[in-house]
Amino acid sequence: MTLELLADENGKPSAGRVLLVATLAFTAVIITFDSLLWATVPNAAYGLLGTIFTGELAWVAGPRIGKYLLPQIGAITSGIGAALIRGEPRRPELLDNDPAFRDDEK
């Protein structure tokens, strides 16, 4: 089961996923030891670990975002663009669009 999580779509182990899991395990050990034993790890170290994790997550998830999510975003934006450029904007059907309407508030 664990090896399936670390494998890519072709079934081979993914270096990015292995490194991501190793970084998460290292961070979990550091946080546990720091909270229970040391209490001396500076906040900058946690910031650095978070930055490394974010970079690895982008490395692992980036190709999938490009493959699956970006076409969906493109379809949404093209649908919005087609609805906006359809021609003359449609006027809402309101009472004050009627030529016989007179505004009594003066």
Tell me what you see in this structure.
This protein is an all-alpha fold and 106 residues long. It has one domain. Helix content is 67%, strand content 0%. The protein contains 3 helices and no strands. Helix 2 packs across helix 3. The mean pLDDT is 78.
Q: How are helices and strands ordered from N to C? A: HHH
Q: Roughly how many Å apart are the termini?
A: 75 Å
Number-wise, the strands total 0
Shape: elongated
Q: Show unreliable segments.
A: none
Overall mean confidence score, pLDDT? 78
Secondary structure category: mainly alpha
Residue fraction in strands: under 5%
Helix content range = 55-70%
Largest sheet: none
* Backbone CA Rg: 27 Å
**Total of helices:** 3
Number of domains: 1
